[in-house]
Design brief:
The complex is a heterodimer of chains A (about 1200) and B (about 150).
Chain A: H1 2-8, H2 12-17, H3 41-47, H4 51-68, H5 85-97, H6 102-116, H7 127-136, H8 140-155, H9 171-183, H10 187-202, H11 210-220, H12 228-245, H13 264-282, H14 290-299, H15 305-321, H16 323-334, H17 340-344, H18 350-365, H19 373-385, H20 392-402, H21 412-424, E1 426-427, E2 460-461, H22 462-474, H23 479-502, E3 512-513, H24 520-529, E4 550-551, H25 552-565, H26 572-585, H27 593-603, H28 610-626, H29 631-644, H30 651-664, H31 666-682, H32 705-730, H33 743-747, H34 750-760, H35 762-777, H36 780-796, H37 801-814, H38 818-822, H39 840-869, H40 876-894, H41 912-921, H42 933-959, H43 965-983, H44 985-994, H45 1006-1012, H46 1018-1042, H47 1049-1059, H48 1064-1069, H49 1076-1085, H50 1094-1102, H51 1107-1110, H52 1116-1126, H53 1141-1149, E5 1152-1156, E6 1175-1182, E7 1185-1190, E8 1200-1204, E9 1208-1210
Antiparallel strand pairs in A: 1-2, 3-4, 5-6, 5-9, 6-7, 7-8
Helix pairs in contact in A: 1-4, 5-6, 5-7, 7-8, 8-11, 10-11, 11-13, 12-13, 13-15, 14-15, 15-16, 15-18, 18-19, 18-20, 19-24, 20-23, 21-22, 21-23, 22-25, 23-26, 26-27, 26-28, 27-29, 28-29, 28-30, 28-44, 29-30, 29-31, 30-31, 30-32, 30-42, 30-44, 31-32, 31-35, 32-35, 32-36, 34-35, 35-36, 35-37, 36-37, ...
Chain B: E1 2-9, E2 14-19, H1 24-41, E3 51-55, E4 58-65, E5 68-75, H2 80-98, H3 104-109, H4 111-121, E6 122-123, E7 126-127, H5 132-139
Antiparallel strand pairs in B: 1-2, 1-5, 3-4, 4-5, 6-7
Helix pairs in contact in B: 2-4, 4-5
Classes of the chains: A mainly alpha (about 1200), B alpha+beta (about 150).
Chain lengths: ~1200, ~150
């Protein structure tokens, strides 16, 4: 607090009391909010004892003060003794006792009460004095404050600092708490008294008491809704008042506002009606209660505009739950186009008309009213009339309602119907045109108004009205209007997309739109009768009317032209909304260039806050979800984000977008989609500070270390993505390749092979070229990932690609080909080092696997030839050996990347027959692999079908006959809420966005990053990322080592880990929580709850490896080879296999000892450093980490902590 | 729902704030976010020129009145345009209470009155009275329509 005081320098109370006029009441104290406590010095010392409990509050305030005004030095005005809260309260007590004196009243109104307002609220000990004033004082101004403070006390939720009325935790609460303790007065003591006194006021029918009655009722509603007793009382009072005055018989509408007085009685009545409805509006909705609805509907005819507004709001709320009752109750208010509801069109109150629009929408769309088209049509027509409302707010609400946007829960069908409604319906005004422009003189409707000319009285197509209105709104100078208009266009885009998506929208937007006049009746009735099937109705050729030669397409084009120009607005939020609107209005087959250049232009502006950019990225997700055909288009847009603002966007979300779009692109689009993603890799390196080509799409801008690092990670992610998805995009799978290993191709030299390969599958060839380049010239971490990506492709692809990669990796391991590539390639800004690629240890196990495979294939071919030549049948023994080799290789391969075990043939396509024979003979069902989802759907569908399943799980399950339905169901079910939801952190964001959630506070912490930026150097960043990736390597090796080939774990770990964009490297090095994902999925995949503990796989794997790998912590070589050996017959043991289950049981019960295999340096507080050879006691295992205790403290003095499982051999 | 109304001086010190339905732990974020918005944009703003921002499904409209910045935050039916109405009501009431666009000094002198006005304008997260003469009546404990 002290620091806050110093940093802020002054407080609100300082400021207030610095006025000479207020000298009487002495000097500074607390500020309500930002200004931290400067309660008088004595109080500060008193408070010290309470410090601990208030730390939170203080921190909050101090932080607020800092955030707000770190160095503020208001010149000290004449320094006075501080006015403390206690002093003010004492004044109240004293002055209350003498409240009959004018001077006391003056003192209260002019000094005490206003200053006390600074505290947001008062403590309960003031209540007795306030109540005394309430009873004895006659002065209206004093009483107004009394009601104000009584309401504040009522609204406090009881705990300090949590006052829903607006109080905030500030140190002044501290003061209140002290007094509370001293005075011994609690809220529980005073609340009943306050409520009783206010209730007495509120039920006092004495005309002299009228104003106090209203104020008391208002104060009473401040009570928190949790007290049912008080609520009960309130309902009683409110309904009691409405019982007397609710009847609208005496209603007298006096034009605007009832300013020019009516008689006394009706004014009193009107005031009471207002007060009662206002209170009712704050009470919990009681939809089942007929009295509630009845009173609200009476309210429509009240004279007080605010009362009418509240009445409509209540009705519109009830209508969403019980449309039928509401419609029946409203029937006589809307009849013949002239009921009370129509009067509201002229009502002065904007929010009342907004509620009217929502009410009309609810009732015109309600299924419960399908039997009463006469009613629904009345409401529809009222809604359409609101489109002409002079207030933009009302008009926009009406447009949104027409579009089927109500809250965020609408179904696609509703939105689609909304678009059809907008494009086809006609506004036919009732005979007496009820839209007049009375409201243009409304001071609150400052927004520009569109005067419906006499033309507007003729029937008009809605779309035309809406377009004209929006166009004029876009010419407004008001930023809120622009923002809102852009939002409306965005919602139009959503509805339009929905209409296209459902295929209901068969209108050619190019056909002419005619104004309509003659057969309005028949058309109207047609609309009504078929409102249900509206969505499927064919275009109604509305003819006649010479006016309209417009087409929907024409109208849209001209609107969008205006929207685009709005991007010039200097307000970045408006621009963001405009871009979102344009993204939504973009259709798959339309030219993208304009949008692309707008976005590229925009992103070059450093003013964009990252939250907004991410919002746009999420909009791309939403757009994709609405129209999967847009995949390629959206990827093109996303690419601009990747290259322009890599540091500002959430790489998780971006990668999720890549992934979903790649799936969505479909067979034809896959190649383009992959290109769009990996174009990142082809970009020239960033030139810091370069201002050239700012607007070019293909230019990276990463002008500061932060974005350079982000770009670097993005490149890593892109490389990984390429490796993981190239096969899918290229539809090239070793197990689907019809051609046997291309022996002929193998004879070719490398150049010809490459040529042959690229002619056969340009997508894959392109991907390979890129990866090869990355393996040479990227930064260290990019090279590692590129090598991994290459081996993935090698394993998954048929020939000649596999051979091509083999050759390449071979050359790479020798460091030989570098010269060949390095000339053609610009460095990514990092010294590549002269001594080769440094990837040897990584590549050699990869080469070994391929070696094994090729050797086994050669052996097989030789054996087959022998058998053929000798006309020998294969013996069971031979088949068994072959099968074992098959399985062995399969396991080996699975360590590197995911392959479908049932389909994958490491021995080549020719082996399939023999394997089949053996399987059949020994009843080895391929369905053993059923736990392995890839079996059923193939790798592509495995990795990407997931997303489809998430989107349309049911359809997918129905369609895919290949999958055992039950399994598929379980799988889909598991995936739907599981795999994606949990694995991809981005998914949460996307889902949240799609659901329209998010009222949480914005994060402003990036500011801190920016301020701290200068202290981080480039070198630091690079060094850090290298280290992190190094760790990543280790963990990666381990995760493939621990996940059983049968489990989906390997896929999932790779998804989850590789997919963590921003947290890409640290994902691996993070705390145990990072591993929770793969473990969960393993549990799920082994349906019997079997866990593949790391204990048994991890431990033995590394035991005895000893020195060779000691220098290079777990690389592939160790895990792979050891795994290889430790698998004796994985398949036979499939059912009974007890990977670790026993170990784990025993491990959890008995003491387990282990020995550190390598040096491990603790990376976090909960981690423990180890020295190789150290003996430890293993307490328990959690998510790939052991909690171990050492025999004696280490150098850092720590005894116990977490270490990675693989660093310890358990005995 | 009208989530917040905030008044600050030109230095970003908060003068008045009313939150409704915002968890205590988020208020700090909102304060800093709003003050930063103001610091970034309001420097050369004209009196009562409206500015807009949004965060997820929450809208923000803010303006400058004399030496005081005013921010309103809302969601659902309290969108940009409704908030513009709200801020208009607030500014006209403040002007009414102070007699002119207030300096910081004037604002603080009228602090109590402004709090009472605000009490009539925003009540439990909903806009209440919009007419400034009505608001003036209510702050003096007179009924909305004279009897």
């Amino acid at each position: 607090m002290a620091s806050g005081q110093e940093s802020s320098g002054t407080t609100l109370m300082d400021l207030i009391t610095s006025d000479p006029a207020t000298a009487a009441s002495a000097a500074p104290s607390l500020a309500p909010a930002a200004a931290p406590s400067t309660l008088g010095k004595p109080v500060t010392t008193d408070r010290k004892s309470r410090r601990a409990t208030l730390t939170q509050i203080q921190n909050d305030t101090i932080a607020a003060a800092k955030a707000l005004n770190p160095v503020r030095a208001i010149p000290q005005r004449q320094k006075k003794k501080p006015v403390s809260y206690a002093q003010l309260v004492r004044s109240i007590h004293e002055l209350a006792a003498t409240s009959d004196q004018k001077s006391s009243q003056k003192q209260l109104v002019q000094h005490v009460f206003p200053k006390l307002a600074v505290y947001n609220s008062v403590d309960p000990s003031v209540a007795p004095s306030l109540l005394m004033l309430h009873q004895q004082c006659e002065d209206r101004n004093v009483l107004r404050y009394v009601y104000y403070y009584l309401a504040r006390i009522l609204s406090d939720s009881g705990s300090q600092g949590l006052s829903p009325g607006g109080g905030i935790p500030t140190p002044n609460w501290d003061a209140l708490a002290d007094i509370d303790a001293v005075g011994g007065v609690t809220r529980a003591d005073v609340i009943p008294r306050i409520v009783n006194q206010l209730t007495a006021d509120a039920t006092n029918a004495d005309p002299e008491f009228h104003a106090r009655r209203l104020a008391a009722l208002k104060a009473l509603t401040s009570t928190s809704a949790s007290s049912s007793e008080i609520l009960e009382k309130l309902y009683e009072i409110v309904f009691g008042i409405l019982e007397k005055v609710g009847d609208a018989k005496h209603k007298r509408r006096k034009g605007l506002f009832g300013k020019q007085g009516g008689d006394k009685e009706s004014n009193t009545r009107s005031n009471l009606q207002y007060a009662a409805l206002s209170a009712l509006r704050r009470l919990p909705l009681d939809p089942g209660n007929p009295a509630f609805l009845h009173r609200a509907i009476q309210g429509i005819s009240f004279a007080d505009p605010v009362a009418v507004r509240h009445a409509l709001a209540i009705i519109s709320d009830v209508a969403t739950r019980d449309p039928y009752s509401v419609a029946m109750a409203l029937e006589k208010h809307i009849e013949h186009g002239a009921g009370a509801l129509h009067d509201i069109l002229h009502l002065h109150d904007v929010l009342a008309r907004v509620s009217l629009a929502r009410l009309c929408h609810s009732l015109s769309r309600a299924r419960a009213l399908d039997e009463r088209p006469d009613i629904t049509s009345q409401f529809s027509s009222l809604l359409y009339q609101l489109l002409l409302d002079p207030s933009d707010r009302v008009c926009f609400e009406a447009i949104l309602c027409v579009l089927g946007k109500f809250d965020n829960t609408e179904r696609t069908e509703e939105r689609a119907a909304g678009w059809i409604r907008l494009t086809r319906e006609i506004l036919k005004l009732p005979e007496a045109p009820s839209v007049t422009l009375k409201d243009t003189d409304n001071p609150t409707a400052k927004v520009n108004t569109v005067k419906p000319s006499s033309k507007a009285k003729r029937p008009q197509p809605l779309i035309k009205l809406v377009m004209r209105r929006l166009e004029s709104s876009f010419r407004s100078f008001s930023r809120p209007v622009l923002h809102a208009a852009a939002r409306v266009v965005q919602e139009m885009g959503k509805s339009r997309a929905a209409a296209y998506a459902l295929g209901l929208y068969d209108v050619d937007e190019g056909i002419q739109l005619h104004a309509y006049s003659e057969n309005a009746e028949s058309l109207d009735s047609e609309f009504n009768s078929s409102s249900q099937s509206e969505g499927t109705r064919k275009t109604v050729p509305v003819s006649n009317g010479p006016g309209g030669m417009d087409t929907i397409a024409g109208l849209l084009a001209s609107l969008l032209e205006v929207v685009r120009t709005t991007v010039a607005c200097e307000c970045v939020y408006v621009r963001a909304m405009v871009i979102k609107a344009l993204i939504w209005m973009q259709n798959p087959h339309e030219s993208l260039e304009e949008l692309q250049s707008i976005i590229a232009c925009e992103l070059s502006d450093p003013a964009w806050p990252s939250a907004l950019l991410n919002d746009i990225l999420l909009t791309l997700h939403a757009r994709f979800k609405a129209t999967p055909d847009m995949a390629v288009t959206l990827l093109e847009i996303a690419r601009i984000f990747a290259t322009k603002v890599p540091g500002k966007i959430d790489a998780d979300v971006l990668q999720l977008l890549w992934k979903t779009c790649l799936v969505g692109a479909g067979p034809e689009g896959k190649h383009t989609a992959l290109e769009a993603v990996t174009i990142v890799l082809d970009l020239p390196p960033p030139h810091p500070g370069s201002m050239l080509g700012l607007t070019s799409v293909d230019r990276v801008s990463a002008s500061d270390p932060k974005s350079a690092l982000a770009l670097q990670r993005l490149v890593q992610a892109a490389v990984w993505f390429l490796g993981e998805n190239a096969n899918y995009a290229a539809s090239e799978y070793a197990w689907e390749s019809a051609t046997p290993p291309g022996t002929a191709l193998m004879m070719l030299d490398a150049d010809k092979m490459v040529a042959a390969a690229s002619s056969r599958n340009p997508t894959l060839a392109g991907a390979l070229t890129r990866l090869q380049r990355c393996a040479f010239s990227g930064s260290w971490e990019v090279r590692i990932i590129a090598a991994q990506a290459l081996i993935t492709i090698a394993i998954r692809s048929g020939e000649p690609y596999r051979l091509q990669i083999y050759e390449f990796l071979h050359a790479l391991s020798l460091g030989g080909v570098q010269s060949q590539f390095s000339q053609s390639q610009i460095s990514n800004g990092e010294d590549q080092g002269a001594s080769g690629t440094g990837l040897g240890s990584l590549i050699s196990p990869m080469l070994k696997v391929l070696d094994e495979m090729y050797r086994a294939q050669d052996d097989l071919i030789r054996d087959m030839r022998n058998h053929d030549n000798n006309k020998q049948e294969w013996t069971d023994e031979e088949l068994k050996k072959l099968y074992e080799t098959h399985e062995k290789l399969l396991n080996l391969v699975s360590l590197f990347c995911y392959v479908p075990r049932a389909k994958y043939l490491p021995l080549g396509p020719t082996s399939v027959k023999l394997i089949e024979i053996y399987r059949n003979r020994h009843n080895i069902s391929t369905s053993t692999g059923l736990n392995d989802p890839a079996v059923a759907t193939g790798i592509s569908d495995l990795v990407y079908g997931i997303s489809e399943l998430v989107y349309e799980s049911k359809e997918a399950v129905k369609e895919s006959d290949a999958i055992d339905p039950e399994l598929a169901m379980a799988w889909a079910a598991g995936l739907e809420d599981g795999l994606w939801g949990k694995n991809a952190p981005a998914m949460e964001k996307v889902n949240e966005f799609l659901a329209g959630a998010g009222t949480d506070a914005p994060d402003v912490e990036e500011e801190e990053n920016i301020t701290s930026r200068p202290s981080v150097t480039y070198d630091d960043l690079w060094a850090k990322s290298i280290l992190e990736t190094y760790e990543a390597e280790e963990d990666d090796a381990r995760s493939s080592g621990t996940s059983s080939p049968e489990s989906t774990g390997s896929v999932e770990t790779s998804i989850s880990s590789h997919f963590g964009g921003t947290s890409y490297p640290s994902l691996f090095s993070s705390r145990p929580s990072g591993y929770g994902v793969s473990q969960n999925s393993e549990i799920r995949s082994g349906n019997n709850g079997r866990r593949f503990g790391n204990t048994s796989t991890g431990g033995p794997t590394f035991e005895g490896i000893g020195s060779p790998v000691r220098e290079e912590p777990p690389s592939y070589s160790s895990s792979v080879l050891q795994r290889f050996e430790s698998f004796e017959n994985p398949l036979a043991g499939r059912g009974a296999q007890s990977f670790g289950s026993q170990d784990e049981d025993t491990g959890s019960q008995n003491l387990q000892f282990g020995k550190a295999l390598y040096d491990f340096t603790a990376g976090g507080d909960d981690e423990l450093s180890l020295t190789a050879g150290e003996e430890v006691e293993i307490d328990y295992e959690v998510d790939g980490w052991y909690y171990v205790k050492k025999k004696r403290p280490g150098r850092d003095g720590r005894m116990a902590g977490l270490v990675p499982v693989l660093y310890v051999s358990s005995s | 729902m009208l989530l917040a109304v905030l008044f600050t001086n030109t230095e970003g010190n908060i003068l008045v704030e009313r939150f409704q339905g915002v968890p205590t732990e988020e208020r700090l974020h909102w304060r800093s976010f709003l003050v930063k918005l103001g610091a970034d944009n309001l420097r050369r703003a004209k009196n009562e020129e409206l500015f807009v921002a949004s965060h997820k499904s929450v809208y923000i409209v803010y303006t400058m009145l004399g030496d005081v910045s005013i921010y309103v935050v809302g969601k659902d039916e309290y969108d940009e345009l409704t908030l513009s109405e709200v801020i208009y009501v607030i500014t006209s009431s403040v002007k009414d209470a102070c007699g002119k666009p207030p300096t910081e000094r004037l604002f603080l002198d009228k602090y109590g009155k402004i709090c009472l006005c605000l009490d009539e304008i925003v009540w439990k997260g909903l806009l209440e009275s919009t007419d400034k003469s009505r608001i003036r009546r209510l702050t003096r404990l007179k009924p909305p329509t004279d009897v």
